[in-house]
Amino acid sequence: MINVNPTRMELTKLKRRLETAQRGHKLLKDKRDEMVRRFMALIRRNQDLRKVVDEKLENAISKFSVAQAIMGTEQVYEALLCPAREASITIKRNVIMNVDVPEIDFTVGEEKNDLPYGFAFTTGELDKSVLDMANLLPDLIKLAEIEKTCNILADEIEKTRRRVNALEHIMIPEMEETIKFISMKLEDNERSNITRLMKVKDMIAEENV
Amino acid sequence: MNSQKLAVIGDKDSIILFKTLGFLTYFPPLETDEISKVIRRLDKEGVPIIFITEEYAQMVPETIDNYKYRAFPAIIPIPNKNGSIGIGMKGIKENVEKAIGTDILNN
Question: A87 and chain B: CB distance < 8 Å anywhere?
């Protein structure tokens, strides 16, 4: 219970606060539900994408390891010295339910050529792994975007849920209890006032007899 | 909106491939201080996405958690040449547990 003076002033104030709290509670609950809905859709995509990326990347890297074993480490590093393409991205901010999440657009710079090296001293495995990586790029960037969004949403959902619970289980019951206390106290005062008046009336009546 | 670069951190053999895509590649020694130094520097330079191999991510959980709930940079774990050790999937599970309360993606 909140510690207040049992006056009409406080009662009106509290009632107004309770109304606000209830409205806020409803809004936050709706926000939470909608965020969870979006989160569910995203997290499933996140999981699928993560699986795909993990698998493909492992594949590309293992092919690369084979190439490395055949060609020798130094040769491989030399072949990969200059990039085949320039990946660059553009960042936007998207808003889901008042939460800032990133949106990432990417552009692959003009392809100079598929492979950044001559074929004379390199093996087929190296070609394959480099091309695999190029194909993987869109997935990688999508994964980054979705995973970040999920992180942020999960955090925000937790925060919102805490607020909803605090309102529902602590603030609102507390206020209701206080309102009940004040109105009971006021009624009590009213009754004692009436009793006093009746008593006084009786006393005056007796004197006049 | 100017375009920005991507970066990747890990051991040389695993991430040299990213170089062909024009990523910035960093291969610091596998030590907590060195790795978080690289991450902080990339953040300062405004690199929005940093991929990091799981092996390296394991060394710097605090640094990664710092950036987890900020919009940028996104730090994304990837498998290295020895395959995935499940950190990426674990992150997804943690998110689900945090948001929903239980792990509903049982697989």
Answer: yes
Q: Are strands B6-9 and B24-26 parallel, antiparallel or unpaired?
A: parallel
- The distance of A17 to chain B (nearest Cα, Å) reads 29
CATH code: domain of residue A142 = 1.10.287.3240
CB contact under 8 A, B78 and A147: no
**Contact yes or no for B96/B105 (Cβ under 8 A):** yes
Q: Tell me, what's the ipTM?
A: 0.81
Pull the structure tokens for residue A103.
């949106």
Residue A120 lies in a domain: yes
CB B46 within 8 Å of CB B4: yes
Q: Pairing state of beta strands A87-96 and B6-9?
A: unpaired
Domain that holds residue A161: 8-203
pLDDT tens, position by position, A110-121: 555 566 666 666
Question: What pLDDT score does A143 carry?
Answer: 84
| Residues B74/B66, Cβ–Cβ less than 8 Å | no
Q: Are B6 and B23 in contact (CB under 8 A)?
A: yes
Find the angle CA(A191)-CA(A192)-CA(A193) to the nearest 5 degrees: 90
Residue among A36, A84, A152 whose CB faces B71 most closely: A152
CB pairs under 8 A between A and B: 148
Angle at B77 between CA B71 and CA B82, to 5 degrees: 170
Residue B8 sits at φ, ψ, to 5 deg, of: -140, 140
Residue A22, Cα to own-chain centre: how many angstroms? 22
Fold of B6-82: Rossmann fold (3.40.50)
pLDDT digits over A46-61, tens only?
Answer: 888 888 888 888 888 8
Q: Which of these, A50, A35, A19, A11, lies nearest to A142 by C-alpha position?
A: A50
